[in-house]
Amino acid sequence: MTEALLPYCATHDASDAPTAADCGGAARDIAEHACQVLVNQPVNAEYRHMVVRAPAGASLAQPGQFFHLACPPGASGSTFLRRPMSVYGADPVRRTVEFLYKVQGAGTQGLATLQPGDTLDALGPLGSGFSLPDCTQHLLLLARGVGLATLSPLAAHAVARGARVTAVLSARSKALVMSAQRWRAAGATVHIVTDEDGDSDPLQLEAYLRDQHAKQPFDFLSTCGSNRLLVLLQKLGNEWDVAGQTAIEQHMGCGMGSCYACVRPFRESAGSDRLTFRRVCWDGPVFDLQETTSW
Ligand SMILES: Cc1cc2nc3c(=O)[nH]c(=O)nc-3n(C[C@H](O)[C@H](O)[C@H](O)COP(=O)(O)OP(=O)(O)OC[C@H]3O[C@@H](n4cnc5c(N)ncnc54)[C@H](O)[C@@H]3O)c2cc1C
User: Where does FAD bind (predicted)?
Assistant: First the structure.
């Protein structure tokens, strides 16, 4: 494990993590990292942005991967299980990892109590991230709520690889729109839609997306954070014959493929009526757009 080389984060070898053979996948460099909190501040009435200093192995996390966070006790008490959080940013040069999280129940209320200098116990990086085809020229990202956190590093990654990125950021209200500046700074063309303006409605959004596709066709599609956006993108991807991926959320236990608490049904292949069951934590959380079943 690379973490042993790093002085500022006490880390532990995840020796009891499932092996590749246990999990039917490739070996992954998963470890429990003691990360130092640098920033943990509100971005609006619901979400907070946390930046931690992390060992090299953690800061190499890829877009779509997540960490399973041990949450300190908060106002609603302590939590037994860790809480999964997407990588909002990871910088192997600065050795930082970022999270953008909504304060909801006991776990995230506990996370919100962390102060700069405190230690965050983060297990990861976990899961399979996005795999953007090398030839991608125009990527469409549809993000809502938590999906903003998950898709944000994919936008930056795609631009760095020379792709054009059109991003739709959807929120209940303008006050809850997050990260638009960050996405623009990364090089994405950002279109904001909100429930309060009425333009987040899938029918209106569909018209906008068709227009964009007619101007410059999308050749890869990704979405996260909304079932309605998933269904819309599946329909358009099917019609346009454009592939894509989606990252999904699911309550999970171990986060490493062992406990099967996060199993969900998926189509065996695009268009198939046959279902298969996959672990969101290990086989995902990023899945083929057309194989994902809506909920
Ligand atoms: C792979 C993955 C990545 C995630 N990334 C982010 C992220 O970047 N930012 C973020 O804000 N949230 C993210 N989530 C959701 C986050 O894990 C939950 O919001 C968190 O576990 C809530 O814990 P809690 O103790 O605060 O609330 P709880 O008291 O456990 O729950 C509060 C509410 O959240 C719902 N909830 C709890 N866990 C989940 C879950 N896993 N999926 C869906 N709903 C849930 C509950 O049903 C309840 O309504 C992610 C989830 C997954 C599976």
Answer: 83-86, 107-108
**How many residues make up the chain in this entry?**
295
Query: Residue 76's pLDDT is what?
Result: 80
- Report the percentage of the chain scoring pLDDT > 70: 91
Nearest protein CA to atom 11 of ligand 1, as residue? 101
Ligand 1 centroid to residue 200 C-alpha, Å: 23
Sketch the domain layout of the chain as residue ranges.
8-126, 138-288
Alpha helices, H only, the chain = 20-23, 56-59, 106-111, 146-160, 180-186, 202-215, 227-240, 280-283
231 pLDDT band, cuts 50/70/90, is: very high
Is residue 83 a known part of a binding site?
yes
| Closest Cα to atom 53 of ligand 1 | 249
Q: C-alpha distances in angstroms, 140 versus 91, 137, 182, 213, 223?
A: 24, 10, 17, 9, 8
Ligand 1 atom nearest 101 alpha carbon: 11
CB-CB contact of 121 with 33 (8 Å): yes
Question: Could you say which of 3.10.450.50, 2.40.30.10, 3.40.50.970, 3.40.50.1000 is the CATH number of the domain covering 8-126?
Answer: 2.40.30.10
What angle, 0 to 180 degrees and rounded to 10, lies between the N-to-C axes of helices 227-240 and 202-215?
40
pLDDT tier, 5 (very low <50, low <70, confident <90, very high otherwise): very low
- Looking at residue 245, what is its pLDDT? 98
Q: What is each CA distance from 135 to 164, 192, 219, 220, 268, in whole angstroms? A: 11, 27, 9, 10, 25
